[in-house]
């Protein structure tokens, strides 16, 4: 039987250490562990990598601690615009949604785009019409309301500032959630979901829903979920860049991930991190920020739940 494993993240560029209380740190770690165990349970019982990453991400979306689903940040119009992407490394099938509102679990809608439509990427009203056809329940805006997120928005509303989530330095937190997994058959998958930037305007879309930028999976190489300064991750085609280094330069998962996060993305001015897995169940979780909410578990017996370096 193949080594099976899962890694998850809840965003790079965490709360700066001075703002993190022991109680809050315990809450974050408990939420990460819940998501990790939910995904791992499926893998342990013969589930597919695709189902495992979807499950782990829905648990993170349901937590108000992370900027995805329930914890999504507010846009300039005091609304929520969420993005998500999922990809199957065995088939290279993928599904993505962007600029959606009212959907409790955007990752599940992305999976339905992959499995129940002829398309890869649906956005805005069209994505919501697709959801309605599948009888998705639209949540009221109050479901997504979080006082902490709303206060963040109030600080910068009616300005041209935007904020990548919740540290003192206005652009130093990238709240995305994601999961990558390798199942017992040696197939891999990646899933990523985000609420985007506080006070974002004009329908801004980051790297999270873009295949190859923020999310990618290919059994030939690796599965990747990114979290970081989205504009730079799009320009650097970061998720595919790791896979490309593995395929064409024959680099290991660890070396390729480090090359991209600790060298290539820094060279163009971006920062953040990623989680990665290959078909042997190896895991890499590099980041170049103060921290990254992250966790991983493998059938080899290793388990990690961490925030800071």
Automatic annotation (TrEMBL):
Binding, substrate: 204-207, 227-230
MF (Gene Ontology): hydrolase activity, acting on carbon-nitrogen (but not peptide) bonds, in linear amides; peptidase activity
Keywords assigned: Autocatalytic cleavage, Hydrolase, Protease
Any one Pfam family match given in the protein's UniProt record, by short name: Asparaginase_2
Family matches, as InterPro entries: Ntn_hydrolases_N, Peptidase_T2
Active site feature: 176
Cross-referenced SUPFAM superfamilies: N-terminal nucleophile aminohydrolases (Ntn hydrolases)
Marked site (Cleavage) residue numbers: 175-176
GO biological process: proteolysis
PANTHER family: L-ASPARAGINASE (PTHR10188), N(4)-(BETA-N-ACETYLGLUCOSAMINYL)-L-ASPARAGINASE (PTHR10188:SF6)
Protein name as catalogued: Isoaspartyl peptidase
Organism per entry: Formosa maritima
């Amino acid at each position: 039987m193949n080594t099976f494993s899962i890694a998850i993240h809840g965003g790079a560029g965490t709360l700066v250490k001075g703002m993190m209380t022991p109680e809050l740190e315990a809450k974050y770690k408990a939420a990460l562990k819940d998501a990790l165990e939910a995904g791992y349970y499926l893998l342990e019982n013969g589930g597919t990598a695709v189902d495992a990453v979807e499950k782990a991400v829905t648990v993170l979306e349901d937590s108000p601690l992370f900027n995805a689903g329930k914890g999504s940040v507010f846009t300039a119009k005091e609304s929520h615009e969420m993005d998500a992407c999922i990809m199957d490394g065995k088939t290279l099938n993928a599904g993505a949604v962007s600029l959606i509102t009212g959907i409790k679990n955007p990752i599940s809608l992305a999976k339905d785009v992959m499995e129940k439509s002829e398309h890869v990427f649906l956005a805005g009203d069209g994505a919501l019409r697709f959801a309605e056809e599948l009888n998705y329940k639209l949540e009221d805006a109050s479901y997504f309301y979080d006082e902490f997120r709303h206060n963040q928005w109030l600080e910068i509303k009616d300005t041209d500032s935007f904020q990548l989530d919740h540290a003192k330095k206005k652009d130093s937190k990238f709240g995305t959630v994601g999961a990558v997994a390798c199942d017992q058959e040696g197939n891999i998958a990646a899933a990523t979901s985000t609420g985007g930037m506080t006070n974002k305007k004009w329908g801004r879309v980051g790297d999270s829903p873009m295949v190859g930028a923020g999310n990618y999976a290919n059994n030939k190489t690796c599965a990747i979920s990114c979290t970081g300064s989205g504009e730079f991750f799009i320009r650097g085609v970061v998720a595919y860049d790791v896979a490309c280094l593995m395929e064409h330069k024959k680099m290991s998962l660890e070396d390729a991930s480090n090359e991209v996060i600790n060298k290539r993305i820094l060279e163009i001015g971006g920062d953040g991190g990623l989680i990665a897995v290959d078909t042997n169940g190896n895991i890499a979780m590099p980041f170049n920020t103060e921290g990254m909410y992250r966790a991983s578990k493998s059938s080899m017996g290793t388990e990690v739940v961490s925030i800071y370096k």
